[in-house]
Amino acid sequence: MSHELRLVGVGLEHGRGTPWAHRALTGIDLAIAPGERVLVVGTNGSGKSTLAWILGGLLRPTEGMATMGSVAIADRKAEIGLLVQHARLQLLRPTVNEEMKAFCDDGGARLEALARMGFSVSDVWRRIDDLSIGQQRRIALAAQLARRSPVLVLDEPMAGLDRRARAALVEAVAALPASTTVVTVTHDLADSAPLGDQVVELRDGTLITDGAAS
Amino acid sequence: MIAGLHLLRYVDVESVLHRADARTKVACLTGTIFALSFDPSWTTVGLVWAALVVLVLAGRIPRGARPRPPRLLLYAMALALFFGVLAGGEPNVEILGRPIGLGGVRAQLRFFGVGLAMLALALVIGWTTRLGDLPAAAAWLLAPLRWLRLPIDDLVAALTLAVRCLPLMADEIATTASLWSLRPKRGRDHSRMVEAVDFVATATSGATRRAVELGEAVANRGPVVVPVRHGRFGVADLIVVGFTAALIGAIVVL
């Protein structure tokens, strides 16, 4: 099945029907072909993370359609790797080794993914809670790399990473198969620019630009 | 999940309950819960639920604010009722030729009635009171206990931070649950049961981290409670106190 991501008139209102309802996205039209590397930029509160969650299949839009191929993204979320801002929340196993095993059976691929993110063999026995926030983020990304999902959605992947880890991340994304779609959501275009060749900008929940990255 | 309970989420409308002082509402809530705990009969539980309907109407709480309990809670309640059936007890009824004792179920239902009424009362307070007013109200209400040399300032500082942490924790648990659904479904040692345990462990880890942060914040901040100038009590407070007094009086008499 095709891995083309397509959003047509997508809008999302959090807490719809409650007194606390607030709109995060309005009328988003976006098409991402397989293998494209797209940067979604915007300021805090512009709806970037909500868009990442829709592209990651965690949220269904309240208006419009979000599809991968011809199926709703939320129904194909098993094929998407999503890295969220608070990486600790997605590391559910107690050790690095067990977390990696939850995503990939191939020991060699696990070690390769860990090495790409700057970890050594001895790190596999470390406890998740003993890692720094930046290390936890790198483990979450290594798990997604080992999983080899056809679509990767990265929500603020550079946050909490030092310069070396940022470089490793850029290198790891560049080394992904050309068919892998990568959507990176970020507020910092300067740091994340190497992760994408197309930039779309969100402002107040609306897509305002769409074009090639400078 | 837990966010569906809408705990401590302020509903921004104008009503007599919103106008009442947080101190009045917290004191009335404490009094009602104490009275109900003292005599949790079917009559008093029914009385409190009737009062809750009046409070929701008086607070002009929209229908959309109604809590959506997590499925886990409903499963736990169903399990508790099952054990209630196993416990048996009077009265007995005959189902398919076998005598079944409903005493345990009845006791369990009454327990649910009391527990959920207390939760609903707390929800009403949350819907009608700004979050920041609650610790100040607690500080004012607990002030007399300083005479007993109890660490009220520490307690209020912890309460302030806990109240701020609660929505964040609810958010984290909801996020963890969503992310859990994204993980590959695998056989062998990655059974759903193991993953459920992992989920609980992660949620606990998140809560523990929040608790540590809270402890450090209290330690850094020290036992200092920012003095707050409370407003004057008004007619709305009088109405709330009158209503609560009538409710507690009815609980005691009945």
Write the layout of secondary structure elements.
The complex is a heterodimer of chains A (214) and B (254).
Chain A: E1 5-14, E2 22-32, E3 37-41, H1 48-55, E4 63-68, E5 71-72, E6 80-83, H2 96-101, H3 107-116, H4 133-147, E7 151-155, H5 163-174, E8 181-186, H6 189-192, E9 198-203, E10 206-212
Parallel strand pairs in A: 3-8, 3-9, 6-7, 7-8
Antiparallel strand pairs in A: 1-2, 1-4, 4-5, 9-10
Helix pairs in contact in A: 3-4, 4-5
Chain B: H1 16-19, H2 22-38, H3 42-58, H4 71-87, E1 92-95, E2 98-101, H5 103-128, H6 133-142, H7 152-180, H8 192-221, H9 235-253
Antiparallel strand pairs in B: 1-2
Helix pairs in contact in B: 2-5, 2-6, 2-9, 3-5, 4-5, 6-7, 7-8
Give the C-alpha Rg of chain B.
22 Å
Trace the largest sheet of chain B across and list its strands. Answer: 1-2
Order of helices and strands of chain B: HHHHEEHHHHH
Mean pLDDT of chain B: 85
- The coarse silhouette of chain A is globular
Number of helices of chain B: 9
Strand order of the largest sheet of chain A: 6-7-8-3-9-10
Q: What are the segments of chain B in which pLDDT stays under 50 over at least 5 consecutive residues? A: none
Q: What's the count of strands of chain A? A: 10
Largest interface: A-B, 27 and 29 residues
* Order of SSEs of chain A: EEEHEEEHHHEHEHEE
Strand content of chain B: under 5%
DSSP helical segment count of chain A: 6
Q: Provide the helix percentage of chain B.
A: 55-70%
> What is the oligomer described by this structure?
heterodimer
Overall SS class of chain B? mainly alpha
- The proportion of strand residues of chain A reads 25-35%
- CA distance, first residue to last residue of chain A: 32 Å
